[in-house]
Design a protein that fits this description.
about 220 residues; alpha+beta; Alpha-Beta Plaits; 3 domains; nine-stranded mixed sheet; four-stranded antiparallel sheet; 5 helices; binds uracil
């Protein structure tokens, strides 16, 4: 939005009186006095008029080590949610940039910046998500090859994006996928009669779950745009 529109709306003033506020040096953007009325303001810019704060919202970016049993949602009637783990008054402003199933652990990103969460989750962006997976049977070479080609999901009538599977043992692997369909990994293994016993997300793009972030802990981070 244009700065003069925001200021005019807030002050309930017409164009001429709003211009006077700028000309008399009463408008500041991110703590700097500004006279250009056409400047663009984002929702996280701080705007003050005549010493009064008109808008001052802090962008929050949270990286969490999600425990098992906690729901990736902002509210849930039955189970604790990931928001319950953040004991801050701003926790309620956050939304999830991609979910994990209740019994999946690992890296979860929460933010109040819709642009950022969209960039992280939009399928077209093809952001890699790396998981550690353990299944109840032997992962054959056929599975590795098929995952690389894509698996057909009848419900959505689509092929999954090519995924890279690196075997760690015959029943354990590191799997990188580039989208986030509902129960995606469980559904990819299911046609081979393999049940996922444990699923843990280690990384999303360049964000990696570091070892010093214990289960249930979170920290704020500054994304690189
Ligand atoms: N795939 C799943 O099946 N579950 C998750 O939580 C994430 C990916």
């Amino acid at each position: 939005m244009r700065l003069d529109r925001l200021v005019g709306k807030w002050a309930g003033m017409g164009k001429r009186r709003t211009k006077e506020l700028f000309d008399s040096g009463q408008v500041s953007l991110n703590r700097r006095r500004v006279s250009e009325r056409g400047l663009r303001v984002g929702k996280f810019d701080r705007v003050e008029v005549a010493g009064q704060v008109l808008q001052a919202r802090t962008a929050r970016y949270v990286l969490m080590h999600k425990p098992l049993g906690v729901v990736s949602a902002t509210v849930d009637e039955e189970h604790p949610t990931v928001i319950d783990l953040i004991d801050q008054e701003w926790a309620g402003e956050l939304h999830l940039a991609g979910r994990l199933d209740r019994f999946t652990s690992g890296l979860l990103v929460l933010t109040n910046d819709g642009g950022y969460s969209e960039a992280l989750t939009r399928p077209e962006e093809k952001v890699p998500k790396r998981y550690h997976v353990r299944v109840d049977g032997v992962i054959s070479e056929e599975v590795v090859r098929d995952f690389e080609k894509g698996i057909y999901f009848a419900k959505e009538k689509v092929m999954t994006e090519p995924a890279q599977l690196n075997l760690l043992s015959d029943k354990e692997c590191r799997l990188t996928i580039y989208e986030g369909k509902h129960h995606q990994i469980k559904r990819m293994f299911a046609p081979y009669g393999l049940k996922v016993l444990s699923l843990h997300r280690e990384a999303i793009g360049s964000l990696v779950l570091s070892e010093d972030l214990a289960v249930g802990q979170w920290r704020e981070f500054q994304p690189v745009f």
